[in-house]
Amino acid sequence: FDSGEVWAVIGTLGTKTGNATYVGLGLNNFRLRLGAKNVEYTRLEGSADFYGDGDGIGNLDKFFVYYFARNCDDIQPWTHGYCTVVEDSPLVLPPGDRAAITERDYIVPGTQRGPDSTQLLPSRALKLARPTSATQ
Fold first, then answer.
1. Among residues 47, 50, 61, 131, which is most buried (max CB within 10 A)?
2. Rounded Cα–Cα distance for residues 117 and 108 (Å)
3. pLDDT tens digit sequence for 79-120
4. Residue 79 CB partners (closer than 8 Å, separation 6+)
5. SS3 string of 64-92?
């Protein structure tokens, strides 16, 4: 995060596919082994809707596209508000520390077990260069 990069995370919402009652997207301070940020599924819902653009892409409600950056204000036109600020503080992510992004899915509705792994698509984290201006 120290070179102005933005991280986009793309994945499926087990709460919408029926494979989980809770989904959480976390950012962890790797050095401290500390969960620094958590984004619960209610904040992920609808975040992929902007990428259909009328192309007939179905099931976007079952996906999320979420961003993490040091500053989310200047990239709001691209993130549509689906972005969490990663502060450069000792208990979040100080400069020079590394981060790990995790997705957690819990409990299939009506059961006492975790999600069916054969029904999961691995999430992907993409490191993006910060756009130079909101007009590009």
1. 47
2. 11
3. 999 999 999 999 999 999 999 999 999 998 888 888 888 888
4. 67, 72
5. EEEEEECCCHHHHHHHCCCEEECCCCCCC
- Residues with Cβ < 8 Å from 17, sequence gap 6 or more? 62, 119
Residue 76's contacts (CB-CB under 8 Å, 6 or more residues apart) are 83
Q: Which two tokens stand for residue 135?
A: 């007009």
How far is it, in rounded angstroms, from Cα 97 to Cα 110? 40
- Beta strands in the chain, from DSSP E residues, in sequence order: 6-12, 22-29, 34-40, 63-69, 83-85, 99-106, 124-128
For residues 105 and 126, give the distance between their C-alpha atoms in angstroms, rounded to a whole number. 20
Residue bearing tokens 């596209």: 65
Q: Which of 99, 102, 83, 110 is nearest to 24 (CA)?
A: 102
> Can you give the pTM of this predicted structure?
0.90
